[in-house]
Specification:
By secondary structure, this protein is mainly β. The protein is built from 3 helices and 8 strands. The protein has 2 domains: 30 residues, no CATH class; 161 residues, Porin (Beta Barrel), CATH 2.40.160.20.
Length: 192
């Protein structure tokens, strides 16, 4: 009788009728009713399109090299471009108050169009992000290639989705002269 009970529990777990603790912890990488396709595991295909994130912005080059608070938000939607259903496109905006090497604080606001490609790594989903857009500043810093107002900006980074809602990412955000005005950002994000 014990053997039949054990067999029934194993069959129920295998069929997914009983939730497994790892799925509850890593949260929400569940397959939609149409079946377990790899693309269905990315958060954007399951309705987690918006996120807010906080982190540290660390300027490099000619800006004052100290960590500063960073806050941002973004929206991503699923995309089949360019490789498969495991990518997303979106737009991001963030803010930090940086400082010139001469001691003047200024607002730094990158607004970027992004492409994100997800990969499978166990229950987590690593991703790569590339983007381009503008960096809005309220300072003219010609020595780093910025004019007062709107400047060219780009980004490249890597991240790790721990669930559909929680992720970590590290990025480099540069402009016209990235070696003079680049920023390394490390973020903790929440999708909804």
């Amino acid at each position: 009788m014990k053997g039949i009970l054990v067999l029934a529990v194993v069959a129920a777990l295998s069929a997914g009728l009983v939730p497994v603790a790892a799925d509850d912890y890593l949260g929400d990488f569940t397959c939609p009713p149409e079946g377990p396709t790899w693309g269905s595991y990315i958060p954007e295909q399951q309705g987690f399109n918006y996120s807010i994130y906080v982190g540290v912005a660390y300027p490099t080059g000619l800006l004052k090299n100290e960590g500063r608070f960073l806050i941002g938000m973004d929206w991503y939607g699923p995309s089949d471009f360019p490789f498969n259903a495991n990518s997303a496109v979106g737009v991001s905006m963030e803010w930090s108050q940086l400082q010139t090497d001469r001691g003047r604080d200024f607002d730094w606001i990158p607004v970027l169009a992004n492409w994100r490609q997800y990969f499978k790594w166990g229950a987590a989903r690593p991703f790569v992000t590339l983007g381009a857009g503008v960096i809005v500043t309220d300072i003219a810093a010609h020595y780093v290639g910025w004019i007062d107002g709107i400047n060219f900006g780009w980004t490249g980074g890597i991240g790790l989705s721990l669930s559909n809602t929680i992720y970590l990412q590290g990025r480099f955000i540069g402009g016209k002269n990235p070696s003079d005005s680049g920023v390394v950002a490390v973020d903790f994000g929440y999708r909804f």
